[in-house]
Design brief:
TIM Barrel; eight-stranded parallel β-sheet; 11 helices; globular
Length: about 280
């Protein structure tokens, strides 16, 4: 009999979840999924299913990179109605982050974003540089000022750019963030490779406003981030139910043999403090 329920007694606040995904059981709700893995609270956002499907589409034709990109990139902001409704119905357990693409945003999009923060009480904003084709040298400035104004964090999806895009360098992120010391900034998938984690160490050890989220990360990389950046800067997340299940991501941290005090910071207190819960 399958039993994936998390047996640990401590509270767990998942800082990176989606409202749906591959790893939900048939007819299972998000709250049932969270209960199955012992997740007390979660930050949720929307999921770009259609974009992912287009990205993974295979063809025998020679790849036209420009057409490929045009087919992938969204022409408008993604819908957050389901996320909004879940958050409003479950205010003690679910907290919204609005996935926003400033590159294509018009003034009405900024008005809607503000409404989600002020009226629907969303706790932060998420960006995705590769899927949204962002240029860090210009596209994030207005969004950074928006987050500073409303005192909310900006979640940055880490990774390498796609084969048809210019390579992403961590230095681009450094050049952006050095101008926004007041911005609370979460680097997602912060140790998804050891090489990326080492780059983060090189650039951000002196940044008190930068936090590191652990989903889909190498366990030893998480360990190094805790030691070098400090346990108060590392935040547990799973990227479930879209990319994996929480038990896998929880066990990565459990395997590090941290003290209960440090585990409590990573699993619950750091993100709770950051979004003022």
């Amino acid at each position: 009999m399958e039993n994936n329920t998390q047996s640990n007694s401590e509270n767990i606040f998942d800082a990176h979840m989606h409202y749906t995904g591959k790893f939900l059981k048939k007819n299972e709700t998000l709250l049932e999924f969270m209960d199955r893995f012992g997740i007390d609270k979660a930050i949720i956002t929307t999921l770009k299913v259609s974009a992912n499907q287009r990205l993974l589409l295979q063809t025998n034709e020679e790849i036209d990179e420009q057409k490929y990109a045009e087919n992938l990139y969204a022409k408008e902001q993604y819908n957050h109605d389901i996320v909004r409704d879940l958050v409003l119905k479950n205010p003690d357990r679910l907290f919204g982050f609005y996935w926003f693409n400033p590159r294509i945003a018009n003034e009405s999009d900024w008005v809607i974003l503000e409404k989600y923060i002020t009226e629907y009480k969303f706790k932060g904003v998420k960006t995705q540089t590769s899927l949204d084709n962002l240029d860090l040298s210009k596209d994030l400035d207005r969004l950074a000022k928006f987050c500073i104004k409303f005192e909310i964090p900006l979640y940055f999806h880490s990774g390498v750019n796609f084969f048809f895009q210019e390579p992403f360098r961590t230095k681009y992120l450094f050049d952006f963030l050095k101008n926004y010391e007041e911005l609370k900034f979460i680097i997602g998938h912060a140790a998804f490779t050891m090489e990326y984690m080492i780059s983060l160490l090189r650039y951000f050890q002196t940044f008190p406003n930068v936090y590191f989220e652990t989903s889909l990360s190498v366990p030893y990389g998480i360990n190094v981030l805790i030691k070098m950046m400090g346990p108060n800067k590392v935040i547990y997340g799973s990227d479930s139910p879209a990319a994996t299940t929480p038990d896998i991501e929880i066990q990565k941290i459990k395997s590090l043999n941290l003290t209960p005090e440090i585990e409590k910071l990573i699993f619950y207190e750091n993100i709770s403090k950051l979004i003022r819960i």
